[in-house]
Every structure is written in structure tokens, then in C-alpha cells.
Amino acid sequence: MTAGKGLVIVYTGDGKGKTTAALGLALRACGHGLRVLMVQFIKGGRATGERLAAPNLPGFELRAMGEGFTLPGHSQKSWPEHRRAVAAAWDYAKKRALSGEYRVLILDEINYVLAHPELAEALPTAQVLDFLRRRPSELHVVLTGRRALPELVAAADLVTTMEAVKHPWADQGLPAQRGIDF
Ligand code: ATP
Ligand code: MG
């Protein structure tokens, strides 16, 4: 079987399902023996279900390299700390992906970073576009997060916008649930 053309895939929009769509894709790819690296920007300390499950999926490597939520009042960390985490996550993702050992690279919440005035300083969009152009031709790259930039959408082969029709938090005030939201 030939390797096939690597795709640039963007999951964006305000509806729920971007990160979980990327995780579903990871599960599917690993089933075929394709190695997957998922680097999570923003997300840090929390023991999410995907972090706990990752060691059980051969060929799947998950790195949560963020400093936690960046919304005012939700983060103990300063902007420079967040920016350092963004730079380290990008550096790691890029180096590992260029090593050629993965077929799928997932950059979780990177769209949010690129669109954020305080965070984008640490990762100019031009660097991401440059990486996409130079990457190994068979590497699929998945970029998730709200507010994907038009430049990224233009560079992508596949773009899906999740539309929020209903959400239990927004509509019923229900808190995030284990196994569903994290
Ligand atoms: P998931 O990780 O569940 O696939 P996501 O990646 O699409 O969600 P993010 O923007 O990363 O969504 O937000 C993560 C958190 O925000 C999740 O806990 C999710 O349930 C919650 N969330 C997502 N969409 C909405 C919404 N429309 N209203 C309120 N909360 C939301
Ligand atoms: Mg997400």
C-alpha cells in the first residue's frame, strides 16, 4: 500500500467536538499501525481521559504541554509563562514531526493560540504555514481549536466547523463531566 498524500485537517468552530474528532482520528490511524503524535497546547495539569488512555494505545503519543486555561480568573499563570509553554510545545511538535517517525500530527488548540493576541506572539502563523509546506509529504496534520485563521483555512485540505446547536453547559448550566468533557 502506498503512503498517500498527507492532509492538512482543521477542526474549528464554537461547537463541541474538535478535540474529540481528532482523538477519534488518532484511534482510527493507530488501528492501521500509523504512528500518531498529539501535542496539546493550553491544556496542562488535568488528568484528562485521553491522557489516561493514551498509554493503552500502541503508536499513540500524547503530550499535554500547556499551562492550563488562559481565561481571566481561570489561570494561575502569567502570559510569559503561557508563551513559554506555547514555544516549547511548538518546538517539540515540529522537531518530532520532522523526524519522520509519525504519520499523523495533531496540534490540539493551536488555532486558539494563533488567534489569541497574547499567545500568538510566541508562535507566528507564518511559522506554522512554513512548517506545513516543508513537512514530510505523507504526514497528516490536524489543527484544532476555535477561530481558525483564514490563512490556515486556505492552506488546509479539509476544514470542518463544529456548530453549537445545544450544549449542556451553555443551555442548562451543567458542569463539565468526566469522560464527556475531559
Ligand atoms: P471536546 O474536547 O469535547 O471535543 P472541543 O475541543 O470542541 O471539545 P474546546 O473549545 O476545546 O472544545 O473546549 C473544551 C471544553 O469546552 C470542553 O469541556 C467542552 O465540553 C466545552 N465546550 C465546547 N463547546 C462548547 C459550547 N458550545 N458551549 C459551552 N462549552 C463548550
Ligand atoms: Mg478542544
Structure description:
This protein has 182 residues and is an alpha/beta fold. The protein has helices at 18-31, 49-53, 79-98, 110-115, 125-134, 150-155, 168-172; strands at 8-12, 36-40, 60-64, 104-108, 140-144, 158-161. It has a six-stranded parallel sheet, sandwiched between helices. It is globular. It starts with 7 loop residues before the first strand and ends in a 10-residue tail after the last helix. The structure holds adenosine-5'-triphosphate (ATP) and magnesium ion.
Strand order of the largest sheet: 3-2-4-5-1-6
Hetero ligands: adenosine-5'-triphosphate, magnesium ion
Low-pLDDT segments: none
Briefly, what CATH class?
Alpha Beta
Keywords:
Rossmann fold, single chain, binds adenosine-5'-triphosphate, 6-stranded parallel β-sheet, alpha/beta
In short, what is this structure?
This protein is α/β, with parallel strands linked by helices and 182 residues long. The chain is built from seven helices and six strands.
Layout of strands and helices, then pairs:
Layout: E1 8-12, H1 18-31, E2 36-40, H2 49-53, E3 60-64, H3 79-98, E4 104-108, H4 110-115, H5 125-134, E5 140-144, H6 150-155, E6 158-161, H7 168-172
Parallel strand pairs: 1-5, 1-6, 2-3, 2-4, 4-5
Bound molecules: adenosine-5'-triphosphate and magnesium ion.
Magnesium ion is lined by residues 18-19, 109, 144.
